[in-house]
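I have been asked to look over a protein record a colleague put together. The record follows directly below this note.
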Amino acid sequence: MTAQRTTRKRDWFDNQPGAWVMVMLPAAAGFIIGGPNLDTLWLLAIWALCYCVQFSAAHWFKAHFSHRYLPPMIAYTVALTVIGLPFLITHTGILRWAPLYIVLVALSMLSSWLRKERSLWGNAVSVIAASTMATVIASFGSAAKTACAIPLNAAQASCGADADAARAMIRNMPGFSQIFEPRAWWPAGSLPMNGLIATALFALMQYSSVLVVKTMIRERGKRSYVAASWVWHVMLVALTIVAGHNPFLITMSVLLLARAIALPVAARYRTMKPVVTGITEAFASLIAFGCILAAVLM
């Protein structure tokens, strides 16, 4: 019992490099798409700490509140508070994303409590949380394109003429007199089109990775998962072709389809260690990262 309650060195770190790749790449894309500045760099650091809090809290919930996982969770939460609270005070506009992430955190902790964090719905929660950060961080960027988003009215359609004013509205929440006005909560630029496109592409790509990993590890040998993975990837290829004939996205989707077919087929003839799947997915994620950026920024 004492050994089970003692915090171990490995409890402080997520030993899955692939998870770090999937969590941080959409945020890094938002950093590049939005335009590097202090706000986007600050958010990138905050998001990394958010993930540290998430995986340590997930361990705590999975162990049904074992004291073993309290020190890492508390330490990461304190670090997040120290770095994140000043951003929140000076950038109250970040709270417009709070409802979505409160729901995602609740679902994530529920999946850990039920020990279903590797289920399809548990993985979907993680993918949505990570992918959305491309839009969140891009909206705080310094690039001129962040001021030209989905216009909510005719006046906002010309927001590019006053990018500084638009970014000021993004950084701050509306006053009390506008608290019930959706346009005040979501000013022009808070939903940058290039960020939204990146979010959608990352979500599709990362869930394809979820399916591939399942066909190789947890659900290995199950034809239903192989079929689901192949159907998902074929749909992704079709979508990239129909959506605009972008050569980068078509290349990405074809390469992802090729690896989704090759890995389970190869596994039928030889034993493949999980590390091989992990390395393959890490390279696939990096290739997709480059293709998504190239497609969005071209």
